[in-house]
Structure prediction request, 664 residues.
Amino acid sequence: MATQPAAADTAPPPAVERFAGDEGPRPAAGIGPYRLAARRLGRNRVALAFGALFLVIVALCLCAPLYARHVAHTGPNDNHVTDTVLVGGEVRDVVSPQGIPTGPTWHGRFLLGADANGRDIAVRLLYGGRNSLEVGFVATALTMVLAALIGLLAGYFRGPLDGVLARVLDLIWAYPAVLLGVALGTALALGGLNLGLFKLSGNSLLVPAVIIGVVYVPYVAKPIRGQVLGLREKEFVDAARTQGMRSAQIMSAELLPNVASTLIVFLPLIVANAILLEAGLSYLGAGVQDPNPSWGTMISDGIRLIPSAIHLTLVPGVMLVAAVLGINVFGDGVRDALDPRAQVRLEH
Amino acid sequence: MVRFVARRLISMALVLFAISILTFLIVQAIPNGDPAQRLAGRTSTPETVAAIRRTWGFDKPIYVQYAITMKKVFTGTVISYHQQVNVLGEIRRDLPATLSLSIGAGILWLAAGVGFGLFSAITAGRFTDRALTALSLVGVSTPVFLVGAVMLYLLAFKLGIFPNGGYVPLTQDPIQWLYHLLLPWTALSVLFVGIYSRVLRSNVLDTINEDFVRTARAKGLAERRVLVHHVLRNSMVPIVSLWGLDFAAVIGGGAILTESVFNLQGVGQYAAQSIGALDVPPVLVVTMFGAFFVVMLSAVVDVLYAALDPRIRLSG
Prediction:
């Protein structure tokens, strides 16, 4: 396998693995770096538990339509301002004449209460989660693809192309991220984007996803470029070149597998930050657009009514923090499993 | 050294130039934004609109408009479309609030991050370390406006200990200034304390195994002295660079969420309001102002980095 020579860079030799207090003897050779990392991750119960928490939240959000149809009997944008609901045996307005929405009923309808428009919070929470997670995932995918591409091209070809790409990264990086997001978000939310073949309507989820995806590119592309700069001088790249492989092949078949572990370490980190940035943009009115819910828009709607109905802020807030915390702790575990220096830390 | 600074300055100017063009294009591309119509007001005749268009140069090609606007920015005469006041004057008015917020929070998160990180590293593996690690993970997973909103609800609205947002200038009443800023400082710091304590913890644990630390212990130095003079000093290098970049990012727009939650009339609030009103000149100036801080402080950080760690040489 052509990627073998650099494998030692991405994972510690098996001897270190035994040193870390591994039980039982194991053949010193023949375990790939990813198998090794997976095994180490498998022993990290905390990371796995939090990863599971994140997966449960994702699964719950995917089931949003089922919950809406069969339990809550209402949609995410359905208005029930003038309706009544049964709370503890007494009939109550969903939204009181003073404009204060009802709190949690702990029943199928309005399980977690209503918002100021008389919409079911639990339903919106699940649908909002779908939007927040979708923005997070799409943005992360975009970041990863762009960063890998830019990092590989800049590091492999160096010279003028590297210079241009480095300036582009500097530009994105120096551009105040939140301001860029708010400016672009507002511009696109009003008019959408029309590039002939490619049309993007203002309230599309792609608008915040693209903005967030671009913002995080430099954070990943710079370390990838640095790694590629070192890797391209290695013998296995020379060998590939003398075998007559083209540049594109060398980048995709030789270099990409060697920077993959860096990409994997960044993946959960970017997902977590993308979800947080989406919330921030939505709070400033430049993210997911009304009436589409997202955890960020729900929190920002709730903050306006915080003295009378704190549950409007807390419900999406807790969900957001739980999801981001889950992926952060899991990502930490992944990093420790893939990062050879993790062993050094455990020694202390 | 001189060469390095010169190259940094040139690349800084280039980045700022590109950012100004990009921002101009983004904000100009916003539809329904005929600035001449807005400057003329609702009860204007077509003639006055046409006259405004001519005198402000809105009928010229877009690159000429850009040049006109940039000339105004550098001569300090740039006027906002919306309220038709001098943009630089507005920024000067709002800057004290943003600087008060960022500098105070910056000091707080550096001190708390280093303190928690060091404590966590010294007690590595024990309960306090685990508790601090868990807390820092929650910190990096919580959006600043949620922290701020919950703080305001509990401490200002329910208990009434703290004021419900707002800003009091330092020159007007230092006590009230401090009192109004304590919550925003804390809210803004939460995220960074989480990051810094984790970075410092792992740096300290890396450094503590180095040979020079063993030497220091072997020659009989007090543990406290070893920790502060040998371990902490070497672990601080990446923290200093991180701090410079984060501080710049906070001044250059990162404080916008905190300002918004706590209703501090700072530059970030001004930017948000201007973007909402589709006002080109203030958005342009504030964005360049933010980018300037980011670019400048990152250059300063590079120089400082080399000064703290002689192993790093300055090169292009």
In short: DSSP finds 15 helices and four strands in chain A. The mean pLDDT of chain A is 80. The two ends of chain A are 36 Å apart (CA to CA). The longest helix of chain A spans residues 121-157.
